[in-house]
Design a protein that fits this description.
Blueprint: E1 2-5, H1 9-26, E2 31-34, H2 41-52, E3 62-65, E4 67-69, H3 80-87, E5 99-100, H4 109-122, E6 128-131, E7 153-156, H5 159-165, E8 178-181, H6 184-189, E9 192-198, H7 203-211, E10 229-234
Parallel strand pairs: 1-10, 2-3, 2-6, 3-5, 6-9, 9-10
Antiparallel strand pairs: 4-8, 7-8
Helix pairs in contact: 1-2
The chain binds 2-phosphoglycolic acid.
């Protein structure tokens, strides 16, 4: 595990963009595992700037996102598909047909979970998976539990996640209570994992995840077992 301490959010974002950019340059047709949440936004801005400067080319990149809220259509401005379009995809030359976000409105959610895992497998797995971390240690929407779930699955969101995410919605009650999330198998099988954590409020859970016991009660703690994990943090 490599931990990079940065001075501030801008530095964190540039360092994260360095690693993602290096991945795209070294393998133009790479599969990027992407994340939503507020932490990666700065890195996405950096990547857009580098694309605009002519330093990065996304034309051969494929992306797979970690998760999506159940019940939100792609054009809902709180959906993670909408987030990815507005924060990254609309501003770079990625082929939208090669961007994948699990569907939160599939008629058969179980079939959608299976489809998503099959897709990742057919793509040959993920080259670089970007992750944020929730205050409860979640990665994607893998919430604290007494077991790890390997496959993409539907999850009931925990109270602290709903509370944290309610800042983006009109009220707590408006936050979807379930989501579809990539499971631990696809995340742990990614060739590289990049975890970003910003703010004093993330320090305690980050310490638990990186140096505490490996337990599904702190889902991110499993990353200690990943052979190529980079963590970038700032307080
Ligand atoms: P945040 O979310 O980047 O908005 O803090 C991280 C997460 O919940 O995974």
């Amino acid at each position: 595990m490599k931990v990079i301490h940065t001075e501030n959010y801008e530095q964190l974002s540039r360092q994260a963009a360095n690693i993602i950019g290096a991945q795209i340059i070294s393998k133009p047709n790479c599969v990027l595992g992407l994340a939503t949440g507020s932490t990666p936004i700065g890195a996405y801005k950096e990547l857009i700037a580098r694309y605009e400067n002519g330093d990065l080319d996304f034309s051969e990149v494929t992306s797979v996102n970690l998760d999506e809220y159940c019940g939100l259509t792609p054009d809902n401005d709180q959906s993670y598909r909408y987030f990815m379009n507005t924060n990254l995809f609309d501003h770079v030359n990625i082929n939208k047909d090669k961007t994948n976000v699990p569907s939160g409105i599939a008629e058969d959610p179980e079939a959608e979970c299976e489809r998503y895992d099959r897709l990742i497998e057919e793509l040959g797995g993920i080259d670089l998976q970007l992750l944020g971390i929730g205050h409860n240690g979640h990665i994607g929407f893998n919430e604290p539990d007494d077991k790890y779930t390997k496959a993409t699955h539907i999850v009931e969101l925990g109270k602290s996640t709903i509370e944290a995410n309610s800042r983006f919605f009109a009220s707590y009650d408006d936050v979807p209570k379930s989501a579809i999330t990539m499971g631990m198998k696809s995340i742990m099988n990614a060739k590289k994992v990049l975890l970003v954590a910003s703010g004093k409020d993330k320090q305690e859970i980050l310490k638990k995840a990186l140096y505490g016991p490996i337990t599904p009660n702190v889902p991110a703690s499993i990353l200690q077992l990943h052979p190529d994990l980079t963590v970038i943090e700032c307080q």
